[in-house]
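Reviewers of the previous submission asked for a worked example of the structure-prediction workflow described in the proposal, so we include one complete record here. The input consisted solely of the amino acid sequence. No template or homolog information was supplied to the procedure at any stage.
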Amino acid sequence: MRDGAFLLALQHFDRYLPPLDERPVLLILDQLNSHMTLEVVEFCRRRKIILLFLPSKLTWCFQPLDVGVFRTFHAECRRLLAAALSRNLPIERRSIVSIYGAAAVKLTFTKAIIKSAWEESGLWPFNPG
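From that input alone, the workflow returned the following structure tokens.
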């Protein structure tokens, strides 16, 4: 991702975060160059977004999100799409976006599912023993 593109994505992301008086929030990133620009760091400092950069070659630690959250998301998308097709609804770009939105917002990216994915991996709560 080009440097400017990530900053634009980050600004979009910021619009959906809690108000400044309810922050800080934590954003976990890999060490892609576009994530570590001065503009990105300054924007995050102003918007009370704490950046945590994962060390190189350690993104495997975050497989719980891939397995526990994104797998659930894709399964929900398939289920909702199959339901729409079974009702002979026309499938157009707008309906695909609404299906993905329903799967993401209402069914998948919930606090309970995200927390469960981390707990099942043994990565949270932190237990060094």
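The chain has two domains: 3-57, 60-121. We consider this example representative of the routine output the project will generate in years two and three.
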